[in-house]
Amino acid sequence: MEKVLGEIPLYFTDPEINNVLHSLNGSPAEFTRHFNQNEEFFLRVSRPVSIPSIPIHHDVRKKKPEDKYLALIRDLVRRLGTVVPNVFTGLTYFFDPGEVLRPCFFRLYRIGETTYLYMVRIDLTYRPTLHHVEERGSNDVTPTYSTTDIVLEADVIPLESVVTENGRTQAFKIAQSIDQTWIGETGRGYFVQGIWLDSELTKFFSRLFYPDGKRMYPYYPFTCKYRAVCHTVIDPTDEGRKAALPLLHRARRFLDAHIDEIQESLRANEFSTDLEVFKRLKKTVPAGWADAWNDVSISVDLNERDMKEFTIV
User: Fold this and answer.
1) Which segments within the chain are labelled E, that is strand?
2) What is the spatial distance between Cα 174 and Cα 8, in angstroms, rounded to a whole number?
3) What is the predicted pLDDT for the residue at 1?
């Protein structure tokens, strides 16, 4: 992703995959929603899906995928489309040469004069705690595995514009309202780590609009990504996406006048609900906005491997 330039380029899309996606009728599918102990979001489906072995390496300078890779993704989309068709309804595939193990799908929505990019990535990385190996992999390819847990990342991203050339979409230009979030380094030698404001801004944005006293972690509805205020979608069905759009739209309108002040506060302090700027802004959030999450509850348990797992209801 071209994060520095503020654009998400659309190098290649596949008509065959898109035909499969557009043929899905959005029939309801049975799945539950979870986070694992690494804060990764996943859907648990009713029957196992076999994930094919995927080549790990790709020259990022090649903007079109290899035919073998493309055939595997076509097969994968057909399989997922039979299990969770409503998750892929109306989406379009595009290839990101820097993320071959996270195939990407998108759809554009519009509220007023603002265009929003809904983007979902399916993470095909093999995880021993979630997946069952059917055929071993190597240094060059992932194993073939089966799973009932589909790891994904779904976001609504505000756009400044859609870049086109000769009627073809070239890129999505992000509406960036946040300054450089790098603020320094910590550690020495090989242990130097960058310090970024992204996670602190995410906590601030999310807790500002979320109901007081209600469990939120590890779900953060509003995030700082691509130097923009984005929204994490935990219901990736067509209905869930549409419900998420106005939540982000109104949150961005509220935050626009306060972004600089919020950033300055977090450059000097870690996020806390005791920050003066947070307490002041929290009082001005319109009554009733937090009701959007009244029906969301998060429980935590140990799964069959004695690992922490969060369930969203």
Assistant:
1) 7-9, 31-36, 41-51, 92-94, 104-111, 114-122, 132-135, 144-165, 168-174, 182-186, 193-196, 222-225, 228-232, 298-302, 308-312
2) 8
3) 40
Q: What angle, rounded to 10 degrees, do the helices at 259-268 and 198-209 form?
A: 120
> Which has the closest alpha carbon to 108: 97, 117, 100?
117
Spatial contact of 39 and 199, defined as CB atoms under 8 Å apart: no
pLDDT (0 to 100) of residue 26: 66
What CA dihedral angle connects 158, 152, 65 and 94, to 10 degrees? -30
Helix (H) or strand (E) holding 142: none
Low-confidence ranges of the chain (pLDDT < 50): 1-3, 182-195
Rounded to the nearest 5 degrees, what angle is found at the Cα of 232, between the Cα atoms of 229 and 235? 150
pTM of the full structure: 0.92
Which single residue is written with the structure tokens 């596949």? 14
Residue at token pair 């319109």: 286
